[in-house]
Amino acid sequence: MDLFIVLVICLSFLIFLFLWNQSYAKGKLPPGPTPLPIIGNILQINIKDVTKSLSKLAEVYGPVFTVYFGMKPTVVLYGYEAVKEALIDQSEEFSGRGSLPIVDRINQGLGIVFSSGEKWKQTRRFSLMVLRNMGMGKKTIEDRIQEEALCLVESLKKTNASPCDPTFLLSCAPCNVICSIIFRNRFEYSDEEFLTLIKYVNENARLASTSWIELYNAFPFLIHYLPGSHNTLFKNIIEQRKFIFENIKKHQEFLDLSNPQDFIDYFLIKMEKEKHNKQSEFTMDNLITTVWDVFTAGTETTSMTLRYGLLLLLKHPEVTAKVQEEIDRVIGRHRSPCMQDRSRMPYTDAVVHEIQRYIDLVPGSMPHATTQDVKFREYIIPKGTAIVTSLTSVLYDGKEFPNPEQFDPGHFLDESGNFKKSDYFMTFSAGKRVCVGEGLARMELFLFLVSILQHFTLKSLVDPKDIDTTPALKGIGSIAPFYEVRFIPV
């Protein structure tokens, strides 16, 4: 047994040296800390807060450097200039998707978020077309969000101003909007199937940002076979996919090829048109994965932003008061807010943007990869190299956002109190991999937050100065800490 262990270590060391030599033979990677065999730089990175570790490394190695997560070299881009240069100026060369083993194990390179190459291009182009046909960015989807906002308000009233954890209700609203796009219908907030779906979404978001999953992504060949929370994550995703497949089968029974009603219908019709094309990217497996991508991203990111946003408003009651004054002046109490109101509500618009900037929802974005050998500054980055773009370094840039550690809507206001756009606002990433649902998310955040503040006074259970807004977890995503709030009708 001892001899076997020695052989495994020696073999792993040889594999590491081979990969190391391959990377340097193919290109001149940026500098970085010297990696150890097999484990790379994992001892120099705090897996509970990778963002902070990368910030410290950037101070030493500059805005472009290389770290090894296990045996895999990853080029880190830190700061607005480096991120913009890659994602916008050289968007095609950096448009690949880097490996995220915890998801790759299930998705197998399918879908829209974690695919690359022709599969990604076709699936993304098609999904954007369908989402626009379904009303994204138009009045039709705005009407749908307004209806759901009213349902959310009614559900919040039923809490009777008692202390409550808002996580579930703030997940229901965006989840129902995305369900209406994908599945054609919404669910009652008491529906057991709906409750289970949302439980999976929230649990998966939390698990995916734990240090255990960071370890899994660095050492999948080892961690996969151990007991741990990755198994719960896999089980949850499998259950979600079963639900999606059952819905697809129902759609197939009643499909009208000339009258698509939702995302699944559009995809099934595309599959029918390409059924004789053996190279088609429009397959049942890709449909299931694409629907899972849209459903998960469309629910989790918006609900987490709402949840974190209310916590920040509890922490800063003076900000909440200014927003409610603007709501009273522009909208009043008796009509639903609409997107046209936003241009007349610069302070509220600035608050929504500052919430997104401050919470830094996806600190390192999703991993990118180079689609070809790339000359980037004085380096040659080989094709397929993983790229991490530090969105934190952009959203917390002190030159663009003075005192970035402070929550301050003034970051998005000019001297006259008008809303001020910023190229540094990259919460949805940038370039060819920018979030497909950005337009939908912007609508939801504005309409849901304004609807809540139009109807309720937010009351914290503790003194605002004692509220801690530090993320409970900071990994792939920033997870809001647990809190309770009272929704007092106005």
Automatic annotation (TrEMBL):
Belongs to the cytochrome P450 family. GO terms for molecular function: heme binding; iron ion binding; oxidoreductase activity, acting on paired donors, with incorporation or reduction of molecular oxygen, reduced flavin or flavoprotein as one donor, and incorporation of one atom of oxygen. GO terms for cellular component: endoplasmic reticulum membrane. PROSITE patterns: CYTOCHROME_P450. This is Cytochrome P450 2C21. It is a peripheral membrane protein. PANTHER family: CYTOCHROME P450 2C70 (PTHR24300:SF200), CYTOCHROME P450 508A4-RELATED (PTHR24300). Heme binds at residue 435. It comes from the Eukaryota. It is found in: Endoplasmic reticulum membrane; Microsome membrane. Its cofactor is heme. Transmembrane segments: none annotated. It comes from Camelus ferus (Wild bactrian camel). The keyword Nucleotidyltransferase does not apply. Keywords: Endoplasmic reticulum, Heme, Iron, Membrane, Metal-binding, Microsome, Monooxygenase, Oxidoreductase, Signal. It holds the Pfam family p450. Its main location: endoplasmic reticulum. GO terms for biological process: organic acid metabolic process; xenobiotic metabolic process. Residues 1-25 form the signal peptide. InterPro entries: Cyt_P450 (IPR001128), Cyt_P450_CS (IPR017972), Cyt_P450_E_grp-I (IPR002401), Cyt_P450_sf (IPR036396), Cytochrome_P450_fam2 (IPR050182).
